[in-house]
Amino acid sequence: MRVSAYPLVDAEVAAGLVLDHTSFLGHELVPLGECLGRAATEDVRAPASLPADPVSAVDGFAVRAADAGQTLRVLGESAAGRPFVGQVEAGTAARILTGGVLPGGADCVAMFEDVRVDGETVSVPAGLRAGTNFHAPGADVREGELVIPAGTKLGPAEIGLAAALNLPRLRVGRRPRVALMSTGDELVELGGSLGRGQITDSNRWALLAALREAGADVRLLGIAPDEPEPLRKLVSTALADADVLVTSGGVSVGTHDLVKPLLESIGTVHVGRVKLKPGKPFTFATLDSGRVAFGLPGFPVSSLVTFEVFVRPALRKMQGYAQLQRPLLRVRMGFDAQATAERTEYHRVTLKKEGPDLVAFTTGSQSSSRLMSLAGAHALVRVPPGDQGLKAGSFTEALVLALPA
Ligand code: AMP
Ligand code: MG
Predict the structure, then answer these.
(1) Ligand 1: does its nearest atom lie under 6 Å from the Cβ of 297?
(2) How far apart are the C-alpha atoms of 129 and 91, rounded to whole Å?
(3) Which of 37, 182, 348, 390 is the most exposed place for a label (fewest CB within 10 A)?
(4) What is the pLDDT of residue 253?
(5) What is the DSSP track for 31-80?
(6) Global pTM value
(7) 186 lines ligand 1 (CB under 6 A)
(8) Burial, 64: exposed, middle or buried (Cβ in 10 Å; 0-12, 13-18, 19+)?
């Protein structure tokens, strides 16, 4: 065993360094049907008002409020998509259906339930008020209004809004191209047969899922052995068309840990160890032409927690999201969390609503090999270093991964 030459960096400082060295990758114009979950990278302003025309909110009769309480001659009908072409004048009305354009001259709609129809005439109630029962032009969206600010994650409502405004494409952040590689002589392909001391390469699948969820376009490089030359070859081929390299394993101080020297030889290592549990050997390097590399620890929980803390915010910055971090929510501790002397610990918890509070409960043993500590977890509670820990009943902020269903 060697002693690591890398200083232990505060987790917050390391996260800041990662973001300082990552930048927006630029945008592309994408058909609306493919925009779900992507970041809008320019402000979208309404090119026209919604609705464009005054349209009825109910089924009834388009009339003039001045004719309230009278019996009116019915001139025709305005249905959705089939507007009435004439004018509603004093003493007249037009039948109107929900979504039908309010005819010229009419200033309100009397609801079907409130009128009496007799042949070609309709008696409307007293007390009609101009402006009722229809949507005025621009009532939903005014022309020029900011409807989708740059940095917004596009969900069903934003996509619907863009479609309502007749925008077939939106400008979104380019997806980062990520090359993902596992390292370790003990690793076997998923589905393969395992010899003594061998394990399946589970990090690849966990990290592939995490990367995709964060918007990355992933290229799988497979497993690299614990030998410098094959590792170097795999990495240099992969970097030809990747923005980001993500590796797992091979970053601790054992003699087979080759990722740090490799990154040093092809770039600049900014972070080689962090005061974080799990995830102490996390490594971050910049390569040429703005590319970056993340050497994640091999232990499955360490690789996913360091992904959350360092990689996900960076991928979001590359794509132009305004919000880089997971939401922080105030939670009440439902258990005593022990602190680690020198390192911030991210304790995996489930959350449960109790009265006005969200209460955090431990997922059990926090061993960095125990994926069960993260499976089903709702949040990560930050336990500051020292000897205090967080006591049951105290309040703290939790990084929310998923809210309880
Ligand atoms: P390392 O950082 O390479 O020393 O790995 C630390 C621990 O994580 C070892 O027990 C490895 O077997 C385990 N590990 C490394 N890579 C993976 C992987 N891709 N999938 C699952 N476990 C892994
Ligand atoms: Mg290894």
Answers:
(1) yes
(2) 16
(3) 37
(4) 82
(5) EGGG-TTPBB-S-EE-SS-BSSS-EESSSEEEE-GGGTTSEEEEEEEEBT
(6) 0.94
(7) yes
(8) buried
Q: Would you say the C-alpha torsion 291, 296, 300, 305 has a positive or negative sign?
A: negative
C-alpha distances out from residue 111 to 123, 174, 322, Å: 11, 50, 45
247, 299, 305, 374, best to mutate for ligand 1 pocket (most atoms within 8 Å of CB): 299
The atom number, within ligand 1, closest to the CA of 226 reads 3
What are the Cα distances from residue 71, in Å, to 97, 99, 274, 308?
20, 24, 82, 69
Ligand 2 center to residue 127 CA distance, Å? Answer: 81
What residues pack around ion ligand 2 (CB closer than 5 A)? Answer: 184, 249-250, 298
Percent of the chain at pLDDT exceeding 90: 95
Rounded CA gap, 29 and 45, in Å?
16
Are 22 and 318 in contact by the 8 Å Cβ rule? The answer is yes
- Structural element, H or E, at residue 125: none
